[in-house]
Amino acid sequence: MMCTTCGCGGSEVKTEGHDHYEGNRRHRHGDESQPAHVHAPGMDGRRMVRIEQDILAKNQRHADANRRYLAERGIFALNLVSSPGSGKTTLLVRTVEALQHRLPVAVIEGDQQTGRDAERIRATGVTALQINTGKGCHLDAHMVGHALEQLQPAAGGVLFIENVGNLVCPAAFDLGESHKVVVLSVTEGEDKPLKYPDMFHAADLMLLNKVDLLPYLEFDVDVCIDYARRINPKLSILQVSALRGDGMTAWLDWIERGAGLASAAIR
CATH number, domain at 260? Predict the structure, then answer.
């Protein structure tokens, strides 16, 4: 995984209301003592492996802490991952609009630049916190841990984490979520699961979005599903259109079942 060896963009991360990452100063947090930024070019293989193991082990410690925090509060956390342009933010807006009067809902938004996605979520009335990753192409568990401290999501609710648009690196980073949900749109081609297998292997649910466009495209849904299940036979798949509403009831039911189980676990 290229991100586990390059440590991309760590010094440029900005979380709203929190300047922990700004500048190039070393940041100490708990057991951290090394700057995150390392480079792969010119490095021998064994050292690259050690660095990758260290980065993922550090991330896993933060992810485990996030998972404990969420479990103690009965919060059902979903990490939404996709390539850019899948319609992930539109899907999320429609989702929080439908859920916010049934369950406590909060959102962590990940993007390289701008706060546009968080603004779209807040316009619905739902609380959202933006993390800008700078040159980084994924969220990590440390970033999400800080966001949780600030966001303080309500117990018994749902937390959506919209990851940076990228079907490669987010697959390697556990954020402490309950599930990774991969969003694939019918405008992207049926073979995305074969091209980016790690992401589809890591996900528990695939949302095939923009199905309202199928009459205008040469996209074979059955072939796409077959490719996805070759990578991950246990992958659940729902076909949705965030724009027209197709499949949204099944998606919302899936979320509410998960939220109910998470909440029941702390009673």
Answer: 3.40.50.300
Q: 76 has which bridge partners?
A: 158
The answer to whether residue 151 sits within a structural domain is: yes
- Judge whether 15 lies within some domain: no
Q: Tell me the whole-structure pTM to 2 decimals.
A: 0.85
| Res. 29: pLDDT tops 60 | no
What is the phi/psi pair of residue 222, to 5°?
Answer: -65, -40
Q: Convert the pLDDT of each residue in 152-182 to its tens digit.
A: 999 999 999 999 999 999 999 999 999 999 9
> Residue 188 falls within a domain, yes or no?
yes
The answer to whether residue 17 is domain-embedded is no
d(CA 121, CA 115): 10
Per DSSP bridges, beta strands 127-132 and 14-15 are: antiparallel
Residue 82 corresponds to which amino acid?
S
* pLDDT tens for each residue of 197-246: 999 999 999 999 999 999 999 999 999 999 999 999 999 999 999 999 99
Tokens of 204: 């528990």
Whether the per-residue pLDDT at 35 is higher than 80: the answer is no
Which residues span the domain enclosing 124? 53-265
What are the residues facing 105 on neighbouring strands? Answer: 158
Structure tokens at 163: 């990851």
CA 239 to CA 211: how far, in whole Å? 7
Number of structural domains in the chain: 1
Q: Considering the chain, what percentage of its residues have pLDDT values greater than 90?
A: 75
Closest by CA position to 199, among listed 184, 182, 185? 182
Q: What is the full DSSP assignment across 174-232?
A: --S-SEEEEEEETTS-TTHHHHSHHHHHH-SEEEEE-GGGGGGS---HHHHHHHHHHH-
User: What phi and psi, each to the nearest 5 degrees, are found at residue 78?
Assistant: -120, 130
